[in-house]
Amino acid sequence: MLVLLIAFLFPLLVQSQQINVTIFTESQCPYCTKLLREQIWPFYVNRPGIMNLQIVPFGKGDCTYDYNRNFHCTCMHGATECDLNRLQNCAISYFPRRHLGLVTCLQGLGTLREGFSKCLSRLSPNTQRKLIECATTQTGELLNYYSMVNTHRAGVRIWPTMYVNGVFFDRSYPVEHKLCEHTAWC
Predict the structure, then answer these.
(1) Core-most of 6, 15, 89, 122, by most CB within 10 Å?
(2) Comparing C-alpha atoms, which of 134, 130, 129, 107 is closest to residue 118?
């Protein structure tokens, strides 16, 4: 009976200890790469289940809609950044709860092709095909558009921008310390 009670209550306790984290990034921003690779990914690996993470890859840019009903996005660091943002957005769309490893792998790479070969190689051929198709079509561009809308609505002006439980965090001290202020699971 005690085991049953613990099995029932444990998910409720973990959920109540989760921290909502939103990070606005750009795929070729060196500061975003440093944040994801050196702080967010290690925290996620060492303390799984604590973060309810939302990553919004777009950055400083804009999307337009043409007369043929196609979106065209431009990004601060150029076309390659838009390509990689698209692939990150596709990964988030296809793996809503398990995308951080793939997004982090893609972060800071030089080309979309490098992203395909370095980060998609461990996925099934069918999943690879779906992600490549998404990243190279209007499906991915629409996802970039949605990220642009969310970025503009949030009024983001610097990258990366991070919110913890809805409150702006200036990253003046390690992310781990900030996140552990909000949970007893550290």
Answers:
(1) 89
(2) 107
Q: For residues 3 and 15, what is the distance between their CA atoms, to the nearest angstrom?
A: 19
Q: Give 40-82 pLDDT, tens digit per residue.
A: 999 999 999 999 999 999 999 999 999 999 999 999 999 999 9
All domains in the chain, ordered by first residue: 19-181 (3.40.30.10)
Closest listed residue to residue 141, CA positions, set 92, 96, 83 = 83
Distances 130 to 84, 90, 124, 142, 184 between C-alpha atoms, Å: 15, 9, 10, 15, 39
Give me the helices (H) in 55-158, please.
Answer: 79-94, 100-106, 112-119, 125-135, 138-154
Q: What are phi and psi of 50, to 5 degrees?
A: -80, -40
The model's pTM: 0.90
How far apart CA 108 and CA 30 sit, in angstroms, is: 7
How many residues does this entry show for the chain? Answer: 186
